[in-house]
C-alpha cells in the first residue's frame, strides 16, 4: 500500500532541514499551549466579572477620539461582521476559490467560517454582559453575550486562512506582500471597531483573537493533512502544501 505521507515527507525535507522543522513545531506547540491557557484564564474571568478595570480604561481612551474618517471606518468594519453582509464576506471568496479550481482550499474555508458556531457555544457558556451605557458610549445594545467577540473571532479565522493561502499558493510578488499586510491590518481594525462602538470590552476582543488563532491553527492542520490525500489531482495547485518559508506555484 502506498504511503500517503511520503509526498509530504519528501517535500518537507526539500524545504527545510529536520532541526528547523523541529524548531518550528516546538514554537507552534508552545504558542498553542500559551494561547489556550490565556484564553481559559480570560474566559473564567469574563464568567466571574462583567469587565476588568483595564477594559474600562481602554474603551474610554479609544472612544475619546472623534475623527470623522476614523468613525466612518470603525462603523464600516463592524458593519461587515453583521448578517447578511458577513455571509457575503465569508462565502463569496470560498465560492470563487472553488470556481477557480481550488477545491480543497474552498472546502477547508468552510471549516474556518465555522468559527461562528464556536463563538455561539462559548457565548452560552461564559454569558458575559455587554458594556453598559452607564459606563461607556454604546452605539446600539445587543442581546447576546459579550465574550468573545464574534466579529473578531470569525474575522481572525477567515482572514488568517486567506493570509495563509496567499502565502502558500502565490509566488513572491508585491501583490502577495500587499495581501499579507492588508489582511492582518483588517483583522486588527475589526477588534478596534468593536471596542470603539462600545459593544465589546478589550478582554472580549483579546479572547476572540486567542480563540480565533487557535481555531485557525486547527484549520491549517486539517488543510495540510487532507491536501495530499484527497485533492492532489484538483485542477489548480494540486501540490501538497509547502512549509512556511516557501511557496507553491499558483
How would you characterize this protein structure?
- With 250 residues, the protein is an all-alpha fold.
- The protein has one domain (6-230).
- It has helices spanning 6-15, 18-48, 53-63, 68-80, 85-99, 103-113, 115-126, 150-169, 174-196, 202-230.
- Helix 6 (103-113) runs antiparallel to helix 8 and helix 7 packs antiparallel against helix 8.
Helix content: over 70%
- Overall structural class, as computed from helix and strand content, comes to mainly alpha
Question: Mean of residue pLDDT?
Answer: 86
The coarse silhouette is globular
Number of strands: 0
Note poorly predicted spans: 1-15, 243-250
Residues in β-strands, percent: under 5%
**Gyration radius, rounded:** 20 Å
Main traits of this protein?
250 residues; mainly alpha; disordered C terminus
Q: Could you provide a short overview of the structure?
A:
The chain has 250 residues and is mostly helical. It has helices spanning 6-15, 18-48, 53-63, 68-80, 85-99, 103-113, 115-126, 150-169, 174-196, 202-230.
Give the helices and strands, then pairings.
Blueprint: H1 6-15, H2 18-48, H3 53-63, H4 68-80, H5 85-99, H6 103-113, H7 115-126, H8 150-169, H9 174-196, H10 202-230
